[in-house]
Automatic annotation (TrEMBL):
It comes from the Bacteria. This is Uncharacterized protein. Residues 1-23, 84-104 are annotated as: Disordered. Residues 95-104 have a biased composition (Gly residues).
Length: 104
């Protein structure tokens, strides 16, 4: 398995380590928010959410035996230009059946 890094420099080989590192970054941002906003209800909720996130990451443990990560998703770029209208010439309208039909 090849381990690379993404644009932020995090390892792509260990998703749990990546999640922990990003959670630490988020926790630092929450501290900055607290410094700017003070000890408000919203800030206390954010701090509580951060504690819960770290607890959940700690509870994960190792993956189940035999569990394999899914294959990477292949992204397909959809062009922005209009489709050829002839492609839709024999298609029925979306909704409740074909053109001219009514629901009862």
């Amino acid at each position: 398995m090849t381990v690379g890094t993404d644009a932020s420099g995090f390892s792509q080989g260990d998703p749990l380590s990546t999640a922990r590192a990003r959670a630490r970054e988020l926790a630092e941002s929450v501290q900055q928010i607290e410094a700017a906003y003070g000890n408000t209800l919203g800030v206390r909720r954010l701090r509580s959410d951060m504690h819960r996130l770290f607890e959940c990451l700690d509870e994960l443990g190792p993956p189940l035996p035999g569990h394999h990560a899914p294959a990477p998703i292949t992204r397909v770029r959809v062009p922005g230009e209009p489709y050829d209208e002839s492609m839709w010439s024999d298609a029925e309208s979306e909704g409740l059946g074909g053109l001219g039909r009514f629901s009862r």
